[in-house]
Design goal:
The complex is a heterodimer.
Chain A (H helix, E strand, L loop, with lengths): L3 E9 L3 H12 L4 E4 L28 H14 L3 E3 L2 E7 L2 E6 L2 E12 L3 E3 L12 E3 H10 L7 E5 L3 H12 L3 E6 L9 H9 L4 E2 L2 E7 L6 E6 L12 E4 L2 E4 L3 E3 L2 H6 L3 E4 L4 E4 L12 E3 L9 H21 L2 H17 L2 H24 L1
Helix pairs in contact in A: 1-2, 1-7, 3-4, 4-5, 7-8
Chain B lengths: L6 E3 L4 E2 H9 L5 H8 L12 H12 L20 H5 L4
The chains are: A alpha/beta, B mainly alpha.
Chain lengths: ~375, ~90
């Protein structure tokens, strides 16, 4: 071990939640370090080439990668330390074990914000391990970050926002998208995203599933089938497509390894993507001084990640001794904005799920 | 290809059949399946297969994924060169 670093606030993960948390904490005068395993900060924003919608506070009309650049620039301007290529491999009380460029050291902080995001779900069917079958997010990394087109003829599984957006971006990158396969009876993503790919001639098959993928050494053919009301494939409805790429956009799971290691209590929420650390209205987990923000606290969107980050950053700063009445007001404002983001047909279910997690934290807190 | 032949844990090449057999032999928790079959013990430490294994466990034992404990998590969260931990240049 080479060295032991110390700071007020350590943030693990430099996506929208982490950078937002860092900026908020830094504004109180706290010393802040962001640890990110990637070569540049921004997280998933870096590969979002489409314009965001929503409100001005959440960068509506801006492309995701520009938002990442702005957040990172603001962090640098205000004296947040951004450590890229830095892996937080473990958490030991208030100390993170870090490996950066081949060297291990520790980072001890008064408060820690985990903003580690989420990972893509897999789907197991015969042939899913063939080269050419990959997560939609992985395909998006290929085309938008590395400028590599990993396949020319593509089928997409999942008509949520990720599946719809990545389908469109694959078209933009020059691939042929033969269709989107969705097991649910209706499209899960926003209508605007669905309309965009439909206008480009891409069919969306709801109540359909992938039966299998075939190929010698790499993907050559995918067979899909229609599903009956009980979710069983209808015999005789099989259709085969010659493709060299099959993208899976079947949901995300919060990346909670560090929260488990730290001893946080969890609750399962199917809507939020799986096991989620119980947290307070201030995003504090059941481990004092350990906060969560963004997808690790329940899979939602970039806008909610920004607000949760802000809330967690402010609360972490207060925990570290940088609190003030003004800060309390700002936290209340962030909570209000989160409430507004979790409204409407898409948001109210998430609001309910989120409130369950906070209720779980309150039960734990009351029983303590 | 038979459904039992579908690979669930890619790192350790554990199939759905291996996992089902383990569960039917009494390995009815994620932890037990892992110890029995090595599923989830490879390079990715279960980041891809954990959820799939929990789904199979839920089906086989008649529980929901929320009722199942997802097993333990230990450092390192990613593969780390031992040389780095020893303080040598890797």
């Amino acid at each position: 071990m080479a060295g032991a670093e110390v700071t007020d606030i350590a943030v693990v993960g430099g996506g929208p939640a982490g950078l937002s948390a860092a900026l908020a904490a830094r504004q109180t005068g706290a010393e802040v370090v962001v640890v990110d395993e990637n070569s540049a900060p921004g997280g998933q924003l870096r590969k979002q080439i489409h314009k965001f919608f929503g409100s001005k506070e959440h960068h509506a009309g801006q492309r995701g990668f520009r938002i990442a650049e702005e957040l990172a620039a603001a962090c640098r301007d205000r004296g947040v330390e951004l450590w890229t290529d830095a892996l937080a491999y473990g958490i030991f009380d208030h100390t993170l074990g870090i490996v950066r460029r081949g060297t291990a050291f520790t980072l001890t902080a008064r408060a820690i914000v985990l903003a580690t995001g989420a990972s893509e779900n897999a789907l197991a069917f015969p042939g899913w391990t063939l080269p050419g079958v990959m997560g939609a997010g992985a395909a998006q990394t290929f085309i938008n970050l590395h400028r590599v087109l990993p396949g020319r003829r593509v089928l997409m599984v999942g008509a949520g926002n990720v599946g719809l957006i990545v389908s469109y971006q694959l078209l933009q990158a020059g691939a042929e998208v033969l269709g989107v396969v969705e097991a649910a009876p209706r499209i899960g993503g926003y209508a605007v995203h669905a309309a965009k790919i439909r206008r480009a001639g891409v069919p969306i098959w709801t109540r359909h599933t992938v039966l299998r993928a075939d190929g010698r050494g790499q993907l050559e053919e995918v067979t899909i089938a229609a599903l009956d009301e009980n979710g069983r494939p209808i015999p005789g409805s099989e259709r085969a497509f010659a493709v060299d790429m099959l993208c899976l956009a079947v949901g995300l799971t919060p990346l909670t390894e560090l929260a488990w290691q730290a001893g946080c209590r969890f609750e399962y929420s199917a809507l939020l993507g799986g096991h989620v650390p119980l947290h307070s209205e201030d995003m504090e987990t059941t481990v004092p001084g350990l906060f969560v923000a963004g997808d690790v606290a329940g899979v939602e969107e970039a806008s909610t990640a920004l607000e949760e980050g802000r809330l967690a950053g402010l609360a972490a700063a207060a925990y570290a001794g940088h609190g003030s009445p003004a800060l309390e007001k700002e936290k209340a404002a962030a909570r209000e904005r989160l409430l507004a983001l979790r409204s409407g047909p898409f948001g109210s279910g998430r609001r309910h799920a989120y409130e369950e997690i906070v209720r779980g934290w309150l039960r734990w807190s009351g029983a303590r | 290809m038979n459904d039992d032949d579908v690979i669930i844990c890619r790192c350790e090449e554990v199939t759905k059949g291996d996992i089902r057999r383990a569960i039917r032999s009494g390995a009815t928790t994620f932890k037990a399946v892992k110890k029995f079959t090595r599923a989830g013990m490879g390079l990715c430490q279960g980041r891809t297969c954990r959820r799939l294994i929990l789904q199979i466990l839920a089906q086989e034992t008649g529980q929901t994924p929320g009722q199942l404990a997802p097993g333990s998590y230990r450092p390192p969260t990613r593969p780390v060169p031992l040389a780095a931990l020893k303080g040598e240049e890797s």
